[in-house]
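Changelog entry

Holo records now carry the ligand SMILES as an explicit input line rather than a separate metadata file. Below, a converted record for adenosine-5'-triphosphate, shown in the new format.
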Amino acid sequence: MSAAPTVNQDGSFLRAQRLSRSVTLPCAFPWRAPERQPLLTDLSLALFPGERVGLVGRSGSGKTTLLRALLALDRPDAGQVTCQDRPVRPASVAALRWYRRAVQFIPQDPVSTLDPRRTVEALLMEPLQQLQVPCDHHERTRDTLEQVGLSTRFLRCRPGILSGGQAQRVAIARATAIRPAYLLADEPVSGLDLPLQVQVLDVLTRLSREMGMGLLLVTHDLSVVARTCERTLVMHQGELVEDQPTASLLQNPQHPCTAQLLDAAHPPALFQGLLTAP
Ligand SMILES: Nc1ncnc2c1ncn2[C@@H]1O[C@H](COP(=O)(O)OP(=O)(O)OP(=O)(O)O)[C@@H](O)[C@H]1O
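Structure line, unchanged by the conversion:
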């Protein structure tokens, strides 16, 4: 397990305060004033060290927009993101290196981000080199591959020969090799079949426990957070409408949109052993 990360004054690791962001919609009529569409409205949240938190909401509710603000990929119109008592906003690669070491990201369809020309070893070494992580990069690469349940014989392979589940594990290993204090994952299991979803979620949970790593898991599927997350946030039309321990949220949803998500949640496979450790 890594050393406890430095936190904000309020004990949180990552904090968003009153974030707002809107975009101007294209208008077909030049005589009309352009309309603004709010994407995030006065949104605040705090993520604590080692916590596994789900961020759910229907398609278009603003989850990815929030994630991009938390990752300093977009600048909000108002509000601030703070990590380790330092403001986080878009900046040069060098200026954000400290933050990229602390907070890593798994994008939607992470397998498509693996360069097919490179070996698994080169893919895992890349973030360690780019972020100048002070450790033996070969040793870290081997350890991380084993942590995600893959043999080191895969080091010499290229992504093309890996199965979907193996490639997904390599993508997770790329994000966790630097030992981030927090991992933000955008729909990391969408597009996988159910047994593979379970496998990948269990790898993420185990890594979070073993490394003391916090996890923000974005999904529209409540059964995914039921299996993985202790706390769940619900977004609706750019606002945070619920923030509850996952168990109480599932038993007693407060917002109509949470109830709708619950109705649409995946059939029982992922709910089996609900809220018990995988
Ligand atoms: N740059 C942009 N310009 C215009 N509209 C945008 C822009 N970025 C996002 N949107 C709109 O903002 C809303 C929120 O989008 P966002 O991708 O954050 O939702 P989401 O909850 O992640 O959806 P999904 O689950 O489908 O990925 C959507 O209506 C989207 O069309």
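Spot-checked after migration. Confidence is low (pLDDT under 50) at residues 273-278. The two ends are 19 Å apart (CA to CA).
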